[in-house]
Amino acid sequence: MMRRRTTLLTSCTALALALGATACGGGPVSAGGGDKALDGQTVTVAGVWSGSEQKNFQKVLDAFTEKTGAKTQFVSTGDNVSTVVGSKIEGGNAPDVVMVPQVGVLDQFAKKGWLEPLSPTARATITADYAPVWKKYGSVGGTLYGLYFKAAHKSTVWYSPAALAQAGVKPPKTYDAMLKAGHTVSDSGLAAFAVAGQDGWTLTDWFENIYLSQAGPEKYDALAAHKLKWTDPSVVEALTTLGKLFKDKQLIAGGQKEALNTDFPGSVEKVFGPGPEAGMVYEGDFVAGVAHDQFGKAIGKDANFFPFPAVGGGTAPVVSGGDAAVVLKDGKNAKAGMKLLEYLATPEAAAVWAKAGGFLSPNKKLDLSSYGDDVSRATAKSLVSAGDSVRFDMSDQAPAAFGGTKGAGEWKLLQDFLRDPSDPKGTAAQLESAAAKAYQD
Q1: Are 393 and 154 in contact (CB under 8 A)?
Q2: pTM higher than 0.85
Q3: 284, 327, 5: which is closest to 152 by C-alpha?
């Protein structure tokens, strides 16, 4: 009870400071937002988001403006955040806040000395309201720089309920059962899986889920930090497991060649678009947004998911990704930027986007009723309840040259493995060679 009381006080204090208002004990904050302590100031925010994601994040920024009086300006960076932000800093036009999509990039920014450590208020809120793992991934050298505002649940397999019902199969509990169910789906007239091999990052996600479940969290952490070599037998074993799927022409829509010419949206279309070609597609919770927004599928009825199943006697994996808010030292309004982070740390801020859809929060204090549908609530509950067993996307933790560059490193080598999965040991050796160079650089 004492712990709960302390947590409530901490959250209240965080909210009050973030909003520049007496939110607890000093009367309720009106929709207009206290004393508008940041009136007349502008906070510039850079991030990868565009389209509906940018539109929904703007709703959060507008809520911050309503509370504090601060105006906001969002700048979309495209995928190469580090290059764009670096050039803006050099040009004397640094944003105040950056939404960083990769642990490796956050680490890079911190080591370059670009980041402000989070304020005591933000640190207290994160400590109270987030699982420790999120604090770990937001820290560099023991200093907390990043607040994970938006998370992704990358251990979800999406399926057409109609396709599975037609084949007479139910969502499987183990990896072997998933492949067996896939053959049954294939026998009923559809391929089992649509695989987005044109986007190398989807293949890293396949590998990571298999590896985390099969090898366990300790080896996962070691491999992510390159303290374990990619030539380790555990890597070869995971590649062998993945290779069984890749080389099975019954399981992959169009076989390996077509998979290599299918991007992520295309893989979702093969399951949920007109004239479906497959019954299932593996990827994160964001599949739901594409299925709904582009193909009009009712989530939970026309499109649903089951957790990525346990592999080889291991436990079911929970792999996550996310966007961390950081404050740049060179921003023209870093102090107001930190107030934005303090606001983003609150469940109130998360609830704005949760209601809009296409969003998961790692904040334990966000009421699940804030999400607009049962499937979003289920994925959010799965992510939050996993606590410290969550592991961040391994390729996002690596230097970008290895884990995040199109046509290079892990992305390319796993595409090569999809094309020809006959030599897992050889692929492991190539991965180690690429990793060793990237981590050295």
Answers
A1: yes
A2: no
A3: 284
